[in-house]
Amino acid sequence: MSGPKIDKAELERRKKEELERARLERLRKIKEATSLFVSKIENIRKLISEIKNDKTDLIESVLSVEEMSYVIESIREIKQSTIAKLKKIIDIEIDNEPEDINNQIKMLENEKSSIMDSYYSVLQSESERINEYKGNVEKQKKYNEFSKVGKTNVSKNTTFKEISFGEKTEKLEKNISYDVYLKEASEICDNENIPENEKESLKEFIRVFEDGTASEKEINKTEFLIYRDRIKRIIEEFNELYLVYVAEQVSLSKIVDKRLIIKNKNQFASLEDLKKEIETIREKAEVEDEQKYIREQIDEVMELFGYNMCKSVIFDARQKGTHYICEEQNGDTAIHIHVSDNKQIMMEIVGLEDVEQNGDLDINATINGSEQLNDYQKQHLLDRQGRFCIIHPRMVDELKKRGVILRTKIHREPSIEFCKKVVRMVNNTKQEHSENSFAKRKEGKYKMQERTME
Fold first, then answer.
1. Which of 47, 269, 297, 402 is the most exposed place for a label (fewest CB within 10 A)?
2. pLDDT at position 176
3. How many Å apart are CA 79 and CA 74, to the nearest integer?
């Protein structure tokens, strides 16, 4: 029975547990590195915010002084330049190896220190110019005061008689209290560690503190104090879970061997949204880790039986699962393997032909059915199907030794209708088509495609 063989791949329980332990240990190391990485990025972002507000009071104190305009411009330029440099160094994609992430952290710290040393040097110099100017102005002011002939009399009628400790004072104290809570609510709202849905609640608190009536503000204050305690716990949990999310996403990128987008905190609508994302990544990581292990074991087993490592091919932009070609090392056929998303594995013998084609290829292979082959090709493949019948059970046994169990679903008899040829589009190769074409050769080896197994 050596037509297409379809089996359900399962991992032995002990192997699954071993893979999960290894994944969790890898995740632990990644979390240590990514947590520090995220912390460094956030600290630099806070530094950017601080630079925006740095020396604003000092600048405003001499804003109308023409002699200080060049100093003010110099301070603004160094602030803008420093912010641009800091933004540039944090515009990086995090690596997926702990050692590489730690190297990125060192790079961030070194570049930040260099940028800030330059910033503080220029800022101190220009600030001293302003302070020196203000000092001279103050000296001149005191000199003018001492030079005055007369003294200003202070009216005795202005002594504290207009101060009231009654209702007006109480209202004044309440307004001061509301301003304190308004500031606190605004600061919480600006916190990047807060989920987006909570910002709407905070904006309502802010609105009432700003424009509400006295009674509305008092009610708002009571409700805000209750909310404030709750939101602090949410921020703490959100911040910790975000670090888990980054670690899980970086770990998954290592498993699938490609960079994955890491969302910013403000892209999560709520704490629940973040929790769901983490759970989705974990489920995907478990599946991908198992499938990666299965593919690696298939590679090893294929090599034992005289086939090259599996190379992925894309037949359709919308295809599900992954297709691989394992080329015979000393022959002119290959094993076409399809691994579905639910770990179902199909193996079949195919002919192989490489065709040179320029440009980037989203789809890099096609399958020609039996009706597109000549009689010799079909007979040749039918013979190879018979050979595959002998080695397939041995392949299954070898996979089992590695903890990969194939449970039979469908095993087809050899048949002309299952004779197929895979045509791969290879970019800028130097092969001779007339010599390597399955259609024109009875024997020989066919070129492997450049794409490696993902």
1. 269
2. 65
3. 9
Q: Which residue has the tokens 């039996």?
A: 370
CA distance 266 to 188: 14
Query: In 3D, which of 233, 91, 99, 255 has the Cα closest to residue 241?
Result: 233
Closest CA to 334 of 414, 439, 438: 438
Average pLDDT, the chain: 84
Say how far apart CA 45 and CA 88 lie, in whole Å. Answer: 11
Residue carrying the six token digits 């974990």: 282
d(C-alpha 350, C-alpha 411), whole Å? 16
Cα torsion angle, 63, 69, 71, 75, sign: positive
Residue 282 Cα distances to 181, 296, 332, 396, 431, angstroms:
40, 21, 42, 29, 44
DSSP code of residue 335: E
Q: Which amino acid would we find at residue 381?
A: L
Maximum Cα–Cα distance across the chain: 123
Q: Are 418 and 412 in contact (CB under 8 A)?
A: yes
CA nearest 336: which of 321, 320, 352?
352
The enclosing H or E element of 9 equals: strand 5-11
Q: Which pLDDT tens digit goes with each residue over 155-202? A: 444 444 444 444 554 555 556 688 898 998 998 888 877 888 888 889
**Alpha carbon distance 124, 120 (integer Å):** 6
Model pLDDT for residues 232-269, shown as the tens digit of each residue? 899 899 999 999 999 999 999 999 888 899 998 889 98
Confidence category of residue 324, pLDDT binned at 50, 70, 90: very high
The model carries a pTM of 0.73
Q: How far apart are CA 444 and CA 303, in angstroms?
A: 18
Q: What is the pLDDT of residues 127-138, one digit of tens each?
A: 888 888 878 777
Q: State the DSSP H helix or E strand holding residue 49, giving kind and residue range, or none if neither.
A: helix 13-53
Q: Contact at 8 Å (CB) between 313 and 325?
A: yes
In 305-408, which residue ranges form alpha helices assigned H by DSSP?
A: 375-401
The pLDDT tens digits for 284-321 are 999 899 989 998 999 999 999 999 988 889 998 888 88
Closest to 107 (Cα-Cα) out of 122, 92, 126: 92
C-alpha of 285 from chain center:
14
Q: Which amino acid is at 54?
A: D
The DSSP result for 65-87, as a single string, is -GGGHHHHHHHHHHHHHHHHHHH
Asked if residue 333 lies in contact with residue 398, where contact means CB atoms within 8 angstroms, the answer is no
